[in-house]
Amino acid sequence: MVFRIRRLAMASVAVASATTLVAGCASGSGGSTSGADGNTLTLWTHNAGNSAELDVVKKIIKDFNGSQDKYEVKLQAFPQTDYNSSVVAAASARKLPCLLDVDGPNVANWAWGGYLDPIDVSGSEVPLTDQLESTVGRYKDKLYAFGFYDVSLAFFSRKSVLNAYDIRIPTMDKPWTKAEFDAALAKLKKSGKFDYPLEMGTGGTGEWWSYGYSPQLQSFGGDLIDRGDHKSASGTLDGKNSVEWGKWFSSLAAKGYIAKKSAADPNPDFLAGKSAIHWDGSWNAAKNADKFGDDLAILPPVDFGDGPKIGGASWQWAMSSSCSNKEGAQAWLKFSRQNKYFVDYAKATGTLPATEAASQQVEGYEPGGKFNVLVRFAREYAQVRPVTPAYPYISTEFEKAAKDLLAGADPEEALGQAAKNIDNNLKTNDYYSG
Amino acid sequence: MAAFLKRLGGQGARIVLALVFVLPLVFMVVSSFKPDDQIFGDLDSLRAFLPLGDVSLDNYTGVFERVPAARFLLNSVLISTITVVLGIIVNSLAAFALSRMRWPGRKLVLTAVIATLIVPFETFALPLVWWVNQLPLLRANGFQLEWTTGWMDTYQVQILPFVANAFSIFFFHQYFRSIPKELDEAAIVDGAGWFTIYRRIVMPLSAPAVATVAILTFLPAWNSYLWPLMVVQSEELRPVMVGISYFFQLNVGWGQIMAYSSMITVPILALFVAFQRAFVSSIASTGVKG
């Protein structure tokens, strides 16, 4: 009897343990290459659910597969929200596809992490030199990625609203100064006509915080890190100019000019007239124009002292280092660099074409077009986020500090802590050398 | 009079509490029939909870155009159901061994099982990805079966790591302890073995515990998001929760999100309503709150 008890007991617990450990106890090793089965290459994109952009990717794949009979590219689309998690998990399992898209600011990190290999697109229809610099992903002087489009940031407002409150409509020749902007917000707040005079999208998450607000920090003369050697944030992120930005940013919430946390998608509030001015991306330009027509004002960023600034770099295409068919991957990348695809992407997504030639062919973005000003912002004001493998960490720390500022934290302390954390991370990772 | 007022106050508090829980669901379902403009327009009034205005099934049509919703639903039903069935068998067997049998080290094993409850999944998710990618896999290649390595992008990688569950073992263990051991002894006298006792006596008397474990296993399996995102690349293998992030792209369709959310909430509600009575009674009898 004792034997039977033991046997069943051990068997029962063993079944549970085995099932728990089933993900862990077998031996073997994953392959060192992936992403292709012979000449069939896998391609990942962040566009699941975004049919506009996904359709262009599908079209390029279809055209490529039809243009030759050596290689075949197969698509796997992921939702954008956690696309990076999927890539990081696949990289740890050595299961990356051959071709994948990557958000511009992450190129350096993924290249440093060994996820990506340098690419060579010489001889393709559109030369690299024709592209907006922010659409080219380089790290340590090597080309790792390129994009078909960029996005631009702008203040969106209504001419009728600005005129009603006697607020000057700024131009690229004469953008708003800090004093003018603050005075405009005070007037709009005093009117009591808006839930908040300014919509900054503070309900956004992740990269939006660095993309949306670090250009304003830079316009104050501050920055996320010392770009000289990318080895320290102390003295820069918590320097005098950055602290000034912190005080101003914090005051926006304290004075009730912006919501401490706006809606996840604040554009409907702007369209409904709940806010007077909206700091937003070019991706909503067409929607705003549809609603307000000629009354829509697309305004340049404020010059806080160091010139108007916006962020640069959007999604780009790259090749994984573990790709088992790099020749095929390079062939697809080169094939895709045709002017018509630069045009298709911009038309489908409402983004800024990466080349001047494509801009001429996209309605609204051609010289004199109603959205051409966004292209000019990108050309004249765009500053890429620091090109360092530490960027994802820097971005996370900046997001935390900026959220603390809106919650009322002391700017010197919040930015000082972020700078200290970034420096520690750099030191821990041996300044991302290698 | 005082008793009446007390009862009235109690009823009022219950109604308020019920509204707090029900209104978000009502808002979700009602909004699923409205266009985005109207959803935001109605937010300032009670109309947000009423199916008034431009009401249609457009959002539901849109969901099926934007996402392979039927496939995702089918996958989630399959993954959650198998996880629940295997989970009930495996965890109840383990709990039976730990609670009804006397063998050296069982207290230590139980302690070790309970100790794993404090480790959050996120802390070992990435190492787990690495491990599952080392496992041998028998795969069909045409008419031949061949051994390969790595469970990535399969159904089993979404099921098997979640079958054995420390909370379920502990829950069954607590419930089994409330069943008189005299029943075991009587059965043994009649010649029953341990497996017969487990199958014929303990499990039939543990229906409330089974129902509770079924619900508590089904919920996380149904809500699974991070894990499938990391280990599943093919769209045809994805579960419903990954599907919801398809809508958070440049053009967020709030009405479609509400429609999709309504569709994926219905099975959960149905399950809870079906097992509600057993759920409450087993929670009360074990003194365990999930």
Automatic annotation (TrEMBL), chain A:
<keyword id="KW-0813">Transport</keyword>
<protein>
    <submittedName>
        <fullName>Extracellular solute-binding protein</fullName>
    </submittedName>
</protein>
<keyword id="KW-0732">Signal</keyword>
<dbReference type="GO" id="GO:0042956">
    <property type="term" value="P:maltodextrin transmembrane transport"/>
</dbReference>
<feature type="signal peptide">
    <location>
        <begin position="1"/>
        <end position="23"/>
    </location>
</feature>
<dbReference type="Pfam" id="PF13416">
    <property type="entry name" value="SBP_bac_8"/>
</dbReference>
<comment type="similarity">
    <text>Belongs to the bacterial solute-binding protein 1 family.</text>
</comment>
<dbReference type="InterPro" id="IPR006059">
    <property type="entry name" value="SBP"/>
</dbReference>
<dbReference type="GO" id="GO:0055052">
    <property type="term" value="C:ATP-binding cassette (ABC) transporter complex, substrate-binding subunit-containing"/>
</dbReference>
<dbReference type="GO" id="GO:0015768">
    <property type="term" value="P:maltose transport"/>
</dbReference>
<dbReference type="GO" id="GO:1901982">
    <property type="term" value="F:maltose binding"/>
</dbReference>
TrEMBL record, chain B:
<keyword id="KW-1003">Cell membrane</keyword>
<feature type="domain" description="ABC transmembrane type-1">
    <location>
        <begin position="73"/>
        <end position="275"/>
    </location>
</feature>
<feature type="transmembrane region" description="Helical">
    <location>
        <begin position="201"/>
        <end position="222"/>
    </location>
</feature>
<feature type="transmembrane region" description="Helical">
    <location>
        <begin position="72"/>
        <end position="96"/>
    </location>
</feature>
<feature type="transmembrane region" description="Helical">
    <location>
        <begin position="108"/>
        <end position="132"/>
    </location>
</feature>
<feature type="transmembrane region" description="Helical">
    <location>
        <begin position="12"/>
        <end position="33"/>
    </location>
</feature>
<dbReference type="GO" id="GO:0005886">
    <property type="term" value="C:plasma membrane"/>
</dbReference>
<comment type="similarity">
    <text>Belongs to the binding-protein-dependent transport system permease family.</text>
</comment>
<dbReference type="Pfam" id="PF00528">
    <property type="entry name" value="BPD_transp_1"/>
</dbReference>
<protein>
    <submittedName>
        <fullName>Carbohydrate ABC transporter permease</fullName>
    </submittedName>
</protein>
<keyword id="KW-0813">Transport</keyword>
<feature type="transmembrane region" description="Helical">
    <location>
        <begin position="155"/>
        <end position="172"/>
    </location>
</feature>
<feature type="transmembrane region" description="Helical">
    <location>
        <begin position="257"/>
        <end position="275"/>
    </location>
</feature>
<keyword id="KW-0472">Membrane</keyword>
<keyword id="KW-1133">Transmembrane helix</keyword>
<dbReference type="InterPro" id="IPR000515">
    <property type="entry name" value="MetI-like"/>
</dbReference>
<dbReference type="GO" id="GO:0055085">
    <property type="term" value="P:transmembrane transport"/>
</dbReference>
<keyword id="KW-0812">Transmembrane</keyword>
<dbReference type="InterPro" id="IPR035906">
    <property type="entry name" value="MetI-like_sf"/>
</dbReference>
